[in-house]
Amino acid sequence: MIKFVNVNKTYPNGTVALVDVNLEIQEGEFVAILGLSGAGKSTMLRTLNQIIDVTSGNIIFNNVDVNTYEMYGDNIEKEIARQKELNPEFDETKLNLKEIDITKIKGKKLRKMRSNIGMIFQNFNIIKRMSVIQNVLSGRISYNPTWRTIFGFFPKKDKEIALQALDRVDIIEKTYHRASDLSGGQMQRVAIARSLAQNAKILLADEPVASLDPITTFEVMRFLKKISVEDGITMIANLHHVDLALEYATRIVGVKEGKIVYDIQIKGKNKKDIIKDLEIVYGRPISHDDFVGEE
Amino acid sequence: MNQALLSKIPPKPRRIKFYSTIILVFGIIISSAMFSGFSVIDIISNLRFAFRLIDSMFFPPAWDYADNVIKPLLQTVQMAIVGSFFGAVIAFPVALIAAGNFIKIKWLNQITRIFLNFFRTIPALVLASLFVSIFGLGSFAGILALTIFSFGLISKMTYESIEAIDYGQVEAIISLGGNRFNIFRYAILPQVLPQFISYTLYAFEVNIRAAAVLGYVGAGGIGQYYEIFLSLRRFEFVGIIVMISFGAVLLIDFISSSIRRRLV
Predict the structure, then answer these.
(1) For the segment A2-39, what is each residue's pLDDT rounded down to a tens digit?
(2) A144 → chain B, closest CA residue
(3) Terminus of chain B with fewer CB atoms < 10 Å: N or C?
């Protein structure tokens, strides 16, 4: 569970990005954040992993082990099972699970918490001059000592993890290609694989399909949905298109001028009603331009 | 043109600023020429001396002396190679400290930049004479001078490149839980390495020319020969050194620019 408690963010230049944001997200939800450009969507995502700090308020994660800063989330048993699989000597009696406010921690602890939170971006932000496999291996940096990551000597186990991740997003045949040679959709899949290799329990997607054509858009959205469902990864995605949100998300949160003005669970609701309600978020009726269209 | 259209046209902007800038620039150039004693008449009236000098330098070329030029020339190139290399080695970490998007401590960036500007102010020839007075005559002083000189050049261009990188890749590594070393290795290095190598090669090209005069102050290389033959007024020997050096510079520029083209 993730909880925003009275979160405010004002940038040094005076821009007010978030105003009294309160939001609770359960594990495994697929939350689509909708809103106009400049509404505060990107800021909201970036405060979650503290790439941007907050001006006031708290962002709380439940069941974080205070020895390792590993997140155990809502389904503790499942995460313990996974840890045991990764490390046979894992001792669950040493766990000390607490609620942690990510805005209050720094340095190594913060980096450890970030390693639980994946992020993908509109312009992919993969390292173009490196190979695909090196990019995915960079998802393992927080699990390895710095000297190993500097020389790029990742253990065999990590290479296996990286290759499996590439296989899951159907791009394993590009393993040894230079990342700059890939198409946009392929780059975004590499970025998703990197988050999988990172062992992310939460995935922040900042306009993940905004620079893709419609066909690749659906492809990338399907992969996001797939890993959300199969791995129980909490997905929080800023989206521009209403139909994508309705199709792939389980919940829509509307942001306007830094405030949450709309919040709805999609299941069981009439989509037409939701589309009508979204007028509050956009300050105008939803039009044809707010849809990607049919696949 | 009808009246309705005519009334819509905005007033033509006056270009006072443009013309006054041109006048100012030319004024500076002309007054500088006057104060520094530059004179076209002097050039024309002395033209025949210039031709006589060129004639004694190159016609005919003193080919039999060429053998003696190769060794000091090679030494000059070696000085430039070593100087550029060590300059580059020191330049990279200092450029990282000067770059405001990697080390976010403003005063530290500023101090580093002032320090870099200080080193770039001192001409290589002056550096060489200072090092000669510390370490004595020879190419070691020259190498140190070239090291400092290339350090100033490369670090400035490199920190500007670091500041111009795509910050999204830095954000990606932060979001992976990366520390400062990881950010450097995975987000900055891949983006600036080709440019850094390119700057180093450029510094090397500049160093070849700079190294040629360092011998004037006793810092090794071909410059010593220039000094000797110019003072003896043996222009035919000066001419052959110039010609062979020219060939070497052409060759080196060709090699290094073809490497650079492949990098970027």
Answers:
(1) 999 999 999 999 999 999 999 999 999 999 999 998 89
(2) B178
(3) N
